[in-house]
What does this fold into?
Amino acid sequence: MTSPALGPEWWRSAVIYQIYPRSFADSSGDGVGDLPGVTSRLDALTTLGVDAVWLSPFFTSPQKDAGYDVSDYCDVDPLFGTLADFDELLQQAHARGIRVIVDLVPNHSSDQHVWFQEALAAAPGSRERARYMFRDGRGDHGELPPNNWESVFGGPAWTRTIDPDGTPGQWYLHLFDASQPDFDWSNPEVHEEFRRILRFWLDRGVDGFRVDVAHGLVKAEGLPDYVPPIDSGSMGGDQTDVPYWGQEGVHEVYRDWRRVLAEYPGDRALCAEAWMPTVEATALWVRPDEMHQAFNFAYLETQWHADELRAVIDASLAAYAAVGAPSTWVLSNHDVVRHATRLALTAENPQGHGIGPDSPGQPIPELGLRRARAATALMLALPGSAYLYQGEELGLPEVIDMPPGARQDPTWFRTNGERYGRDGCRVPIPWEAAAPAYGFSPTGASWLPQPPEWASLARDVQVGDPRSTLSLYRRLLAERRAHALGTGALEWLDLPGRGILAFRNGDVIVVANLGAAPADLPEGRVIAASEPLDGATLPTDTTVWLTAA
Ligand code: GLC
It folds into this structure.
């Protein structure tokens, strides 16, 4: 095995590329990407220059929430291949010096998980039911849900069961879809099971876990109503004191997991998906004895505005430094509108709501792409670890005009189409302009339709074009590595002009122009620029990296 590019504590500065397996590369031809497909395309990631990949779920699942509804945590769904395919992928990635982290979904399982099926068949109060959150209903006949909580995907967070004799029975909690019952993390058996699952994948050689809904799991004692009632399902980033997000007890779970990881050699890492309202609150997940990283959603959610970005960068560096953790940076993932579209929206768009043809604030595509390139160039110059989402290196936009009949996100169904949901960022990515499904699948099948204009964004079209977004990403990643920006330190520079962000990281000076007017370019040798430069000015919505001449 080749030794990976980054050594001990690699996660402090790694660039981690998110693979959404359904939409990356399909080797079987059924229109859904799979693990052999990922393996066959690993060379593209070596050329891109990433340090690690995070694989979204490929475990056994009825796919009601694109695999975030797991029915067997220790096997591969036939849709994606086999455990042997996973082992091959891992080995091939490691041989290229690429680390692999997998997605762990501990807040809930699928309703097809054997534990939940046993729970449904068992009586109230049984050991089987105690693994999930079953409660009697309110009202004279238990006809009302146990409390007023709402699902993140819309509608009530409770579903009533039917007893074996056909009469209505208890209710169970699901913060997400009804097919995703929440585990009861006050039950030691659940803890034991997840330690087993962690060890199963650690034994196979994974380098870490991205932990889904890491701020969920533990619910407030007595399951009190949430006041004021939620009027929009949310992952919690905009809410405080929610009885199911960020409860103190959740941290004990991760202290335990950290000890499990420490049993293994080679710096295995945990990354929290915790949508907390502030970076300070999120930093609680990366205290020295907890996880290693947490997604910086405050950064992702910041508008394209110099002062706001400077503030969130400062707050992030301070909050994470205070607990000895690196900051992470992220602009896109499989749950948010792609940043090549989001940065040009002119109306508010809450996370998870998505965007469709009649949504307010429609973006100008060219503006979105330009800002996305500048935003990525800014992000990749920051010290810490950065996450990329497959397809952003091609400048892919959100697919807005998707046929309603093609949509698959449970959000779309649970809100009767009121929220479009997340399908628009999950469309299979284009590899070769002239191939069926743009090289995604040998048969041309694609589980979500690919727009015709994506031919021009295909990887093979961009590879030889120095002005392409792909070439920009490759350049940024190479220079980031060459100048050790990930392990560097940021020092702000005050340059004249409105809307200018400028800082030094090691021997690199980074200037981003978010203002309306062109700015003066400082002296130096340009080593990367998000747009072609003309003379000594820095155009609007452009980021440049310079070194001493
Ligand atoms: C996380 C995942 C999202 C999923 C949800 C429920 O937010 O990123 O895709 O729907 O958890 O598991």
Observations:
- The chain is about 25% helix and 15% strand.
